Each structure stands twice: as C-alpha cells, then as structure tokens.
Amino acid sequence: MCDAHRDKTVPLSDIPESVDRVTSFGADGGCRIDEFFIDRAIDFAWMAAGKTQPNPLVGALVVKDGRILGEGYHQKYGEDHAESIALERAGESARGGTLYVTLEPCAHTGNTPPCVDEVISNGVGRVVIPTLDPDERVNGRGVRMLRERGIQVDIGVRSDRALLLNMAYFKSKLGLGPAVTLKIAMTLDGKIASRRGQRDDITGTEARRMAHRLRAVHEGVLIGIETFVTDSPQLDCRLLDSVDPPVPVVIDGSLKFPGRHPWLDRRQMVILTSKDAPEEREAALVRAGARVVRCGTSESAIDIAEAVAELEKRGVSSVLVEGGRKVFSSFVEAGVWDGMFLFVSPVLFGPDGVGLADRAVGKENLGARFAGASVVSGDVVVSLISEKTRSAILDRLS
Amino acid sequence: MCDAHRDKTVPLSDIPESVDRVTSFGADGGCRIDEFFIDRAIDFAWMAAGKTQPNPLVGALVVKDGRILGEGYHQKYGEDHAESIALERAGESARGGTLYVTLEPCAHTGNTPPCVDEVISNGVGRVVIPTLDPDERVNGRGVRMLRERGIQVDIGVRSDRALLLNMAYFKSKLGLGPAVTLKIAMTLDGKIASRRGQRDDITGTEARRMAHRLRAVHEGVLIGIETFVTDSPQLDCRLLDSVDPPVPVVIDGSLKFPGRHPWLDRRQMVILTSKDAPEEREAALVRAGARVVRCGTSESAIDIAEAVAELEKRGVSSVLVEGGRKVFSSFVEAGVWDGMFLFVSPVLFGPDGVGLADRAVGKENLGARFAGASVVSGDVVVSLISEKTRSAILDRLS
Description:
The structure is a homodimer of 398-residue chains.
Chain A: H1 33-46, E1 59-64, E2 67-73, H2 82-90, E3 98-101, H3 115-121, E4 126-129, H4 141-148, E5 152-155, H5 159-165, H6 167-173, E6 179-187, E7 191-193, H7 205-216, E8 220-224, H8 225-231, E9 247-251, H9 262-266, E10 270-274, H10 279-288, E11 291-295, E12 297-298, E13 301-302, H11 304-313, E14 318-321, H12 325-334, E15 339-345, E16 354-355, H13 363-366, E17 368-376, E18 379-386, H14 387-396
Parallel strand pairs in A: 3-4, 4-5, 6-14, 6-15, 8-9, 8-14, 9-10, 10-11
Antiparallel strand pairs in A: 1-2, 1-3, 7-16, 12-13, 15-18, 17-18
Helix pairs in contact in A: 3-4
C-alpha cells in the first residue's frame, strides 16, 4: 500500500559514504526530516488521548522552508480536525508548503467539511502521511483527490508509530477485532519489581503521564489479581485533565477480589475467572456490582484469546494490559497483542528483581518490531508493534 | 558553560498547549529541529570511528531554509575538517545559513587552517554546537571569534551524545583520566545470554557494526575470562574498513588464559590478574607475548579502579568493557565508567537467561543519564552517560 519512502526535502549529498549508509547511533538522527516532522505530529496527536473517541487521534504540521508555520491536533470529538487547525494557523503562507498529518486527510463531510478541500484550497504543494485512513469513506479517496489536483502525496513515513497511535481505530474499522496493548515499566535490567510482592514506582512523572494517555485510549485496563493485591493500583487517568478512566479488568482465577472496592460500584469492572471458581463468590461480587466472566483455562491459566473476545462482547473492545509478569507473559505467549510500550528507568534491580518475562520467547514467536525509542524526562520509552497485526492492517489499507 | 538551549528555527505556536508540553511518545519527535540536525551530524561523525585519532570525530551540516546544503565529517587524521567539507559542498549558498557541527570549530592552525576563518568567510549566519572543544588552543576561543564577527552561536544541543562520541578525547584533554565505556547486547527482558555458558548472537549486523565502531574508538577492549571461554570472541573491527583492532584485555584472576592464542603474539594483549595468581602461569603467558598485570583484589574480585590505572600506564587509556555480567557489574559498582551503550533485540530469554546485573544498584548510585535512544535495523540502541563524568567535563569547559 505504501509508496517507497521518499524524502524530497533533504537532497542526498554525493559524498562517498552515501547518507543512506549513515546509521543512527543513539538517537533518531539517521532518520529523514520527514520522519522528524511526522514524529512531532504524532507526539502532538497524543495530547488529546481520551478526548476524540470514536474519532482517531490526529496531529498536523504545515512546514515551509524548514519552518513550522502552523501545527495542531484534533482536540475533541466534534471539533476541528488537525489539518484544519494547522492550515488556519499557517494562513496564506501555507501556499507551496508541506502538510504533515498523521492520517490520510478525510474526503467526506462529517461534523466538519472534508479536509482535502481545505488542503487543496490552501495551495499546499505536498502532503506527507504515515498511512491511509481505514474509514471506508476515506481509505485512499483522500489521497486520490489530492493527487488529481497535482498535490504530491508521500505515504509510509513512521507508519508503525502512527498505527500504535490509533490501534483500536484501525482494527475496528478494518474488522480485525479488539486491540490489545501491553504496557510495562521496567529497569535497565528488565525487572518490573525489586522483588516479588513489592510495589515500586519505577519511572518518573512524565513517563507515567504517557502511561495514562495509553489508558485513556483503551476501553479497558487489565491486571492480574496478584498485581491488584501487591500494588493496589488506581488504574485511572489522574495525570490528565478531564478524561474518563477505562474499565478495570482483573484476571482472578479463584475470585479473591474483595467484596468492597470502588471499582465494583463505580467503574463497571470486569473480573475474568475460571470455570471452577466458587459460585458463592461470584454471586457476592455480582451483587456488589462486578461483571464476572468465566473463561476456559489451560494449565490453570485463563485462555487469553477467549478472555479478550468475552471483553469485546461486553463493550470493552480495546484493552491495555498492565501486568504483572504472569499476565504479560500469557498475552505474549498467546500471541494476543498488537502494541507494546516499555518505560525504562536508569536503575538496576539485579537478580532478586522480578523479570519481565516468565518464559523465553524467540524472535519469530515474539514477532515484535520496534516502532520507536526516545528519551523522555529521564526515562526511555520504547514502543513495539506486532508484525502480525501490522501486516494485517497494511494489507487491508488499499 | 552552556547557553540555554534556544531554537530559532522553529517558532513556537501559540496554541493552548504549548509545544514545550508536547512530550515524545516513542520517538525523538518532541525534540527541536536543531537536535535533529545535530543528531544527524553526530551519526555522520561516527562513520570515521578509528580513523581520526588523536583528532576527535566531528560531523557537520550546512542548513538553509530547511534544506541540507552540504554535509561532511572528518574522515581521517590529517585530512579536511568536517566544517570545511560541509561548507565547500554548500558553496555560495551557505551564506546566511546555519552550520551544525558536533564540536566547537577550531581557532588554530594545525594540519589545516582554522575552521573559524572559513566559517566567517563563507557568510554563515548561525553556528550550533553541542559543546566547546576541550583542546586548550580552542576551548571557547572559536566561539568568541565567531561571536565577535556577529555570528550567532548556540551551545548545548545534544551535548550528552556529543560527549559520548568523543569521551576519550574530552577526558584526556581535560586531565580527567582514562575513558571507560560499557557495551552490552541484551534482550527486551535484560538478558545477556540465554543461559550460563551459552553464547548467543543477540543483535543484528547493523547493531554489531556500531559495536565495532565503539571498539574502534577505544584503545582496549575488556572482557572477563568466563566470557572469553564461552564466547571465543575476536574483539576486532571486522565489520569496518581498514580500522586497527583495539588491544584485548582479559580479567583473569587465576590465569586460565590459554598458552597459545593469536592475541598473545599479534595483539599485545593485557591480562589483568590477582596478586596470588600462579607465577609459572604468568611466566608462560609473558613468554608467549602477553602483558600480565597484577592488581589488588577485594572479595576475590580485581580492584577496577586500579586495573584501569594500570592499563593507562601501559598506553591503554580508553577501554570498552564488553562483559560478561560479573565484569559489567564490577565496573558499575566501582563507579568506574563514563558511557554505556545497550543494544537491545526484540526477543525474550526469560528466567533462565543471564541478567545484565548481578546486584541491585539504585538510581543515585548508578548515576546514569539517558543520552539517546533509537531504532536501528530491527534493534534498539540506548546510550547513557555517567552524571559524574558529565558534570566533571562540563564544569571544566569554560
């Protein structure tokens, strides 16, 4: 579906070692300037996490002669689109410039007029996007309309990061089922806790704010009962302004969840349990407000694929999995995940720490592809996309 | 020493959430465009690893209106400086442009004329550098000369990555002693081997090429005897063209190193051992060509600070430490390290794997600051700088 990634703004020098052979050594410096601007637009788009559903998160920049003339993001469902904000800010100077936008501009009238019309009328000379829009009213139509008017459109820049930005939107529009994202805070040596049963605040506030943005774009946030007991997490989005928290989901094979807890009566929580969990506990938890779902098990672990399907039936069609190790490993081994975000802190927990994975998973079986890596206020954020999910989505974007 | 990091090329928009609040979510997108160009110049500079000693590695770009008009790097000792190559490629069009260079332009005549003269005569309007040049003939003089001619100079962009690029150069010019860099290839879950005694090729070729560049800029490359036995590594720079390999250094407390090995007669290897190692083994190894150095020990581990000092006495004043776990941990615990490069592969070795660290080290004690993170051909490269080293260097750059 993608054009080869072309970069018109940075002419390659004719030095003996071509720029293409310059490899990046600790930063994204090897990337092209198109990637820099799309990255920035993606970062912008994340600002509205939790406020645009069912619309996707979108960010946009207008750039001319190396200057950002306008930038914006879709801030709230029903309000202006990112392209529109960026173009308006740029004004007349947008003429002949490049529009960087994290998703194909829309070609249809919804709450707002089609963005392609605005792009065309503003005289933009080139549009750079990571992917097409999977919405059947767009999916390639926006690009065709722009190209028919002589506007150059380059597709495929930073597509992995853009897919992670709107994973649930892509999967649902393309009929690919629920979206599952894994989120892990860990040390430099891959430990998620300093020892078993210990709760540790591993990363700094900025990384945690990002974790809350991840929560905000998922309908459910899932943990194991051990993590619930150890961490007493709130699983909310308190570091963001006015964003509804996701539905707490706890995997709890023998229904140890307490009979009184704010999630029961206020957050429509779901408890995933086994077929042989005690019935009287189920009845008590249901009375207290929980939705209890019994799933098949193998080797005393709940069937992950079935659990995710059951959640979807209950309206939770995107899930952020926050651990602990056993839960994380079960999703990885089942191959039921689309994206993964690791938040890494510069500390070592050593051999007593609890490792990220409770089993070895080879590169092929893991099927994970790095999408991005960056330093964020003292921590590093690394994102990965499932190769399987990536292929399924890109194959369907015509 | 540094000006506050200013960014004149990207005007901040007046949107409600200022651009400063846009946080990066998986790539370096939150960074400013100055950082993009300095990152690129740093990546360029690395291309010549092993070929410029005793000169530093330097890369440069000339940018105007968002276009790279010329770029270059110092390719070999005695040949043109990076600034000179970039300016020559840009030609007349450099006038009014910005020169990005990874080190303060030189103000003195060496093998080539002073770069500042060329920068001034080419009409560049602005110069962006990460740090001053610690060479006493430069250290601030280059910047003063440029500013006296009305050229704007911004200092401090990506200084951590620039310090890592030339750690040995900075430390030796400033009288801060030998440079020690730790290099670790590991899995997503922080494992350096799938089990004890197992050799694993963890990362791909491009990450390994970078590891060879790290070897090329160090005079010695150090491993423990266990890693020698398990991995039979070559510790050379075979993925680079015509670069001399560093001196192999093996920590070998009881002198188990074999009596015949190519390193003995061809690579002037150094064996660091304990005071009570068998004398007849020492005599045999010395006859075979090794330099054997006895160091003090505590808890049967060699004193790391003493070992590094002894290496310096033998002309090995920069060392790349390549493991294994015990060796890595001993350098970290001794606080004897300046930079750290982690090469991370998308695979999980699980609980049977050998972890990166054999002891917990808290954030304060580790004193590590992330310098960069990026995706490189299927792996992630993360670099860290020692807070202590960083402060010592920046304090001395006037």
